[in-house]
TrEMBL record:
GO terms for molecular function: ATP binding; heat shock protein binding; oxidoreductase activity; unfolded protein binding; zinc ion binding. Residues 383-448 form the J domain. This is Uncharacterized protein. It comes from the Eukaryota. InterPro entries: DnaJ, DnaJ_C, DnaJ_domain, DnaJ_domain_CS, HSP40/DnaJ_pept-bd, HSP_DnaJ_Cys-rich_dom, HSP_DnaJ_Cys-rich_dom_sf, J_dom_sf. One of its GO terms (biological process) is protein refolding. It comes from Rhododendron griersonianum. Residues 507-585 form the CR-type domain. The keyword Zinc applies. SMART domains: DnaJ.
């Protein structure tokens, strides 16, 4: 039940699912904010995001432009809203760590599988699940109120992928595995509605909720059968064996390897539907019965009336090419549905593009029928524009796009059986090196190709590509055992601070002094004596990287002579020994919010050790240690105290004074109060972080038995004892006579 019109902030609001979340939020009357990068014609050539921005503005959405790296801006914005929903795409999963702080209610970008219940998947998918689990654990560790929503397969997305409703010429459908494994299909718009409902429901706070409507759990064969009945057609079913998907996941570059692993998990193993929902777990279609979700049958009827656009899949799962396996060429488009190939052929024919027939040989993965792929000729290239396949008037974004596409297609590591691949790759590199530089391009246009080549000294840096720092920026799937930040040594520090009980409850400001790496004052962080400077490394010619052949791969590795800096230092600064930083005391002021608890961790961005290369300092993690209080005990936001009653107070009742966080209050004691009984003082506990509510205070009664009695007290108690004994004897006698 919606408790109020909370302000909702959406990250990734122009993304595939994010736009549905924004629309659902506005439809339910919430003040809605969308945070994202500035949209320009260059960053979004199709204008789709600009059109979404116009739509959002007309609906009353407040658009805020910025980067996720702008921490102060994020914190300021988040403090103004009540609920934060992240619909960021897969490449930005880890960026959610930047937006967890200072959030009142966080719903991370999940919306897919239930990662805590799925195990034993292929490594590329496992890596993605590990990222999602890391976001969950980080969210839980901060104490930020959260809701995790798992909705498995998006209907419009995956049904388009499996059934090709847009392709009226389709004659065959691809079945993965045996086709008998069940999957859960949920409509994107329904997911968005349930997200907003759950975000406003106290029952779902700090819980995982699932969207698994029973009517939408089907196997591929059941799905195809239903589609055949609706279309009155019979499709040829092409089965892709599990071994083929496993091989693709092991040998394809990123992100194709991830897509193969996901398809394997969903449609071969049935990981999305092979677990039961426990009695204490929440399923949103039952939690909100007033919301009518879209069934698969209803969505297929919609597909019949209004077939979805081809871009659903072209921009996602099926953006794949051909990969070589052993002595043959394994036809990847066959695995990811043959209609992609046919539509490509039609598009090429309509655009008068030349296509080269390529026979697909038998390999260890099985035989396949001949297909066609687009051929690009390099041997007859007249100049750099021809090499990149652009015209002489192409702008910088067009040149860059052409280069990246060809670099991926022609890289030697993905064309090991083509002896000409390296030469073609180098030609593409050289062409882009010239055309991306305005000054060099002007000289090239003025002199012409032959004259420019004669005057070119070839003093390129020898990197994988201009404007690319390392190979993994172009081919992230080939990243070896490097860390996720490319090996950068971030100077993260962890310190502890001790607080009194009341400091933790009420919040406070602390001045912390700790040992950290600091910029060297003597050399100003240069690592060399003042007045000198490093020399360019002769081994790598200043690039910091050298070529190395490892097995079948030709890769670039950090230059061992200069350790990747591109510079050689002969005379080091005596203060820092060339490290550019020195160890010393660093002092910061830390604002500790009310309600922190023992072992909580506060992240202070940019307050850690200095970076030797002059980048932003690392982060400081402060672990909170709270001293015990002689009066108060804490359990989350609730407070517990003991109140001692005398025998007369417990017997006769009355009033007592009880300490609270705000001072003493009078509490009524009921007659006949027993030891261990308690009363609850509502809203007298600790303020819940990032909300306006407070916990409760529990008063536990302890009855004090006196150790020493006066003569009068003893006489009174003995008299009471005699009276009780007399009453007991009367009752016993009456029972015997009866």
């Amino acid at each position: 039940m919606i408790t109020g019109l909370d302000k909702i902030l959406v990250f990734g609001g122009t993304g595939y699912l994010g736009k549905h979340v924004v629309r659902a939020s506005i439809k339910m009357g919430h003040p809605t904010y969308v945070y994202g990068r500035p949209i320009t014609p260059n960053s979004n050539p199709s204008n789709s995001k600009m059109e979404l921005h116009k739509e959002f503005q007309s609906m009353g959405v407040i658009l805020i432009q910025g980067e996720l790296s702008e921490h102060e801006k994020l914190v300021s914005l988040i403090k103004q809203v009540d609920i934060v929903i992240s619909a960021l795409g897969t490449p930005c999963y880890m960026e959610q760590l930047r937006i967890i702080d200072a959030i009142k209610r966080f719903i991370p970008s999940e919306f897919g599988c239930e990662e805590d219940l799925i195990t034993a998947v292929l490594p590329p998918f496992q890596d993605l699940l590990d990222k999602k689990r890391k976001i969950r654990r980080a969210t839980e560790a901060t104490g930020v109120p959260f809701t995790f929503l798992s909705s498995t397969c998006f209907c419009a997305y995956f049904l388009s992928f499996l059934l090709h409703p847009h392709d009226k010429y389709s004659e065959e459908l691809t079945i993965y595995g045996t086709g008998e494994s069940k999957a859960v299909f949920t409509h994107e718009e329904d997911v968005a509605i349930y997200v907003i409902r759950a975000a406003n429901d106290l029952r779902t706070c700090n819980r995982t909720v699932l969207f698994r409507p029973s009517k939408n759990i089907l196997s591929q064969l059941e799905l195809v059968s239903l589609w055949e009945k609706k279309t009155s057609r019979s499709y040829n079913k092409v089965f892709v064996h599990e071994e083929e998907l496993v091989a693709l996941s092991e040998t394809s570059p990123h992100p194709e390897n991830v897509r193969a692993a996901i398809i394997h998990s969903i449609f071969v193993k049935g990981d999305m539907a092979n677990f039961e929902i426990g009695e204490d777990e929440m399923e949103v279609s039952k939690l909100y019965p007033d919301v009518e979700y879209t069934t698969v049958d209803q969505l297929l009827n919609d597909f019949m009336a209004n077939p979805p656009e081809f871009r659903y899949i072209y921009e996602s799962l099926l953006r794949v090419g051909y990969r070589r396996y052993g002595s043959g060429v394994f036809n990847q488009p066959r695995v990811f549905s043959s209609w992609n190939y046919r539509n490509g052929i039609r598009e090429a024919a309509n655009n008068n593009r030349s296509w080269l027939p390529l026979g697909v040989l038998k390999s260890n993965l099985g035989a396949s029928t001949p297909r066609s792929i687009h051929g690009t000729a390099f041997t007859a290239a007249r100049d750099y524009y021809d090499i990149l396949g652009v015209n002489n008037n192409a702008n910088a974004p067009e040149i860059k796009k052409a280069y990246y596409g060809l670099a991926k297609q022609l890289h030697p590591d993905t064309n090991k059986n083509d002896p000409e691949a390296e030469k073609k790759f180098q030609e593409v590199q050289k062409a882009y090196e010239v055309l991306k530089d305005e000054e060099k391009r002007a000289q090239y246009d003025q002199l012409g190709h032959d004259a420019f080549e004669e005057n070119d000294d070839g003093s390129g840096k020898g990197r994988w590509g201009p404007g690319v720092d390392n190979i993994w920026d172009i081919f992230p799937g080939f990243r070896p055992i490097f860390d996720r930040d490319g090996g950068k040594d971030v100077k993260v520090l962890i310190v502890a601070v001790e607080l009194s009980f009341m400091e933790a409850v009420q919040g406070c400001n602390k001045t912390l002094t700790f040992q950290a790496d600091l910029p060297c004052d003597t050399c100003g962080g240069a690592g060399v004596p003042p007045g000198t400077r490093p020399e360019t490394c002769r081994t790598c010619r200043g690039s910091g990287m050298i070529n190395k052949v490892t097995g079948p791969f030709r890769i670039q590795v950090t230059c061992s002579s200069c350790r990747g800096s591109g510079k050689i230092v002969k005379n080091f600064c005596k203060s820092c020994n060339g490290d550019k930083t020195v160890r010393g005391p660093k002092t910061i002021k830390l604002d500790i919010m009310p309600g922190v608890d023992d072992n909580d961790t506060i992240r202070a961005y940019g307050s850690g050790g200095a970076d030797p290369d002059g980048n932003q300092p690392g982060d400081l993690y402060v672990t909170i240690k709270v001293r015990e209080d002689p009066v108060f005990r804490r359990e989350g936001p609730d407070i517990h105290v003991d109140a001692v009653l005398s025998i007369p107070q417990a017997t006769l009742g009355g009033t007592i004074q009880v300490p609270t966080l705000m001072g003493d209050v009078v509490v009524k004691v009921r007659p006949g109060t027993q030891p261990g009984q308690k009363v609850v003082l509502k809203q007298k506990g600790i303020k819940t972080r990032n909300s306006y509510s407070f916990g409760d205070q529990y008063v536990h009664f302890i009855v004090s038995i006196p150790m020493n009695l006066s003569q009068r007290q003893r006489e009174l108690i003995e008299e009471l004892a005699k009276e009780e004994q007399g009453e007991y004897n009367k009752g016993a006698a009456a029972g015997a006579s009866a």
